[in-house]
Automatic annotation (TrEMBL), chains A, B, C, D:
Signal sequence, start to end: none
Pfam family, one: adh_short
Name of the protein in question: NAD(P)-binding protein
InterPro entries: DHB_DH, NAD(P)-bd_dom_sf, SDR_fam
Length: 244, 244, 244, 244
């Protein structure tokens, strides 16, 4: 009888951090990937399968309660009774950079919708699964991908700042509430440009000036393997040449 | 010909900080008070009038765009062409203290609605007035009343933490964007219990263990009087016996 | 019978913040000024006297235990039994900006000597006087002039960073220890260039781009007047055009 | 011809973090251990040797320039021309917990002596070796073991706070100065009681309430393996039950 591998559930999977984290965690777990579109999910699922891993992509609007609910029903149906060992909230709203007085109400809400409501819905869905999981190699872990904008607000980007501060606050509150239950909640301050297809043309004067998504994935994996005597809540990650 | 006094517009006026700030600023300005109910507004308006000041209360739902818009139309109608010298965002959502997994989506949004959306609507309405105001005794000022929960997230209160972090982020982004235009934006970390009617029974073992609203008002007034060479963004205020 | 005015004791008096603070506090108190040289002290003492205030300058090496001890003996002799209402530690080491590997041991210690040892000696001398003072108009107050370098370390200035972080730590520990005794301890983050004779040539492209020492002094005075229900530990002060 | 393994140099080696870090890094490197006494060094050296590693202990007073200089001469003599891949500053002054006014000048200086001067001397000795090292598996790394007291000052422990803030400042300044040269400088906020012989009797009501030194060592090793595209400056580490 085969022993079922535990799950890792990753929300926000594009060609950068999400894909790298999925591949890293797929070395040990069955991974479930949530993203808005199948075009984001399919290449990652295929790559993981081709490497011998097991991945399941579910198109999901992370900021929509019904969509998230539906996704977790699919997870339960496909992996009944399977422990969930790790969850990563990697979804992020796009940066809106414009004068404050030109923001529409929709723009003001846009970061909150993903980083606030999306993070809330994902956390409420996944934390009960993490709490219920037993006999795992590592403490159940929930990691939030954060940003410089989560600790420092810049001019002309009030929306992005507010949503990112809110996500960090959520992660800290959850770390304090669920830590004593043995759940490891972390927040990663990604402080720099990530090396993904759409940033290919940026910062090429200096070698290695962009953050490797694989390095972020390794950091997340390390955090996941920390025993409960030594949980990290916050870690910053930036290229060696970054000014800060 | 009478010289019209400049305005101070204060959102969030109850029997505590809002009333004290209104009274303090009414010593120099005509004050406009926004609060949800006339029962919050009327006693403050009457007290200020009885002291010889000028106050105008407008029932307003600060998190509703139409209501805020309507309030500022009333202000424009009553005080046409009048400079706005100061604005205070003192509205705050109530603390919801319960396990994260028991929060409803409505509860999750409740702090954001006031501290995020409300602060956004008020700022968008009042900043153009501050920017346009000239020949003032002090730089036009926008102060946000904040809380410990704006810099530190506690367990079992993720909602409150997220909304308060977001409000602080907004204030920092605005301080950086509007500072160079000569507008002074500040955030006050109110770290302790405020001495208001509903806290009468609390913390009475030690004298002066609760924050005097008048002392907060004096701090706001001091901030307002700072010249543009010496703006304060953040100030913390706590009773001498507070643990922190 | 004349009522003796309480004292304010200010360490670190040059032509900038120290002089401005001395003049501001001299409006209410007899001020004692400590600085290394009489050439720093004399003009400030004379200006205060000419304005009808009372000032007493004592040449003091604030980082030398004997010198500090001697200074406080002189204070006790000149103002026997007089309450001390306020103390300001405004001494600061000079910025050493050079590659870390070129620092000498003397240079490494230079900021600590003033911001660490000097702040310690001054605090130990003045806190007992503050604690013993009764019947004052405002809570006894000890304010430390700090800097951006107290919250953020820059490259090529490790010495300055270490000493300034240390001074801020001292102020926070003292705020927490002496606050419950009714003593108000504060730290001011001065984030920008102060407008003093030696910075006359700097930052003149934009008006008011340098911090007015008088504005710092007014902020200190405001902090001093806060009642014990509403103590501020930390306040930041920066010009409206400062990037941060 | 045998290829010489690179070195890891660890300052501050007792039975806790230092020993665990030494053992972890000895899996890949020859380790050099600095501690005041041979009684601290010998058991660690012997354990590493017994596990097949290579360790060299040098009795050193890390806050004494001559002693540090002598230690690095011994390292150069024993391992001529050998690359240094990692350095860990794990020395720490003891906590002095007493009222501020009872501190002696010696006590005031005691944390600075180790965390300030010791960290300076060690950094000045080891950074040139890290900068000169080439062809390493991982970027040359300098990690400082820090503490809660490095980010938060507590009452009745001003000395400890000042020295720990200073050490953190040094690490941040060095991270910014040497990062662009490819050197990875980190600071670890150890927020809790470490599980070592002298804390055996503490915190035993709850399992795993103390930090495992091996877990700290694993975190340091992870940081060391980060590529230069993804350096972590600060990481916090605390037991799951810690209040913060």
């Amino acid at each position: 009888m085969a022993i079922t591998k535990a799950l890792a559930i990753i929300a926000g999977v594009g060609p950068g951090t999400g894909a790298a984290v999925a591949k890293r965690f797929a070395q040990e777990y069955n991974v479930v990937l949530l993203a808005r579109s199948t075009s984001s999910l399919d290449p990652v699922v295929q790559e993981i399968q081709s490497l011998g891993g097991n991945a399941f992509g579910i198109p999901t609007d992370i900021s929509d309660a019904k969509s998230v609910d539906e996704a977790f029903k699919q997870i339960a149906a496909k992996y009944p009774g399977t422990a969930v060992s790790a969850a990563v909230f990697n979804a992020s709203a796009g940066l809106i950079k414009k004068p404050f007085l030109e923001l529409s109400a929709e723009e003001w809400n846009s970061t909150w919708t993903v980083n606030g409501t999306g993070a809330f819905l994902f956390s409420q869905a996944v934390l009960p699964l993490l709490v219920a999981s037993k006999h795992l190699a590592h403490p159940p872990t929930l990691i939030f991908t954060g940003a410089t904008a989560g600790i420092k607000a810049f001019p002309n980007s009030a929306t992005f700042a507010a949503g990112n501060f809110a996500k960090r606050a959520l992660s800290q509150s959850l770390a304090k509430e669920f830590g004593p239950q043995g759940i490891h909640v972390s927040y990663a301050v990604i402080d720099g440009v990530i090396d993904i297809p759409k940033t290919k043309a940026w910062l090429n004067d200096v070698p290695d000036a962009k953050i490797s998504p694989d390095a972020i994935a390794n950091a997340y994996w390390h955090i996941h393997t920390q025993p409960r005597t030594a949980f990290t809540w916050e870690i910053d990650i930036r290229p060696y040449v970054e000014k800060w």
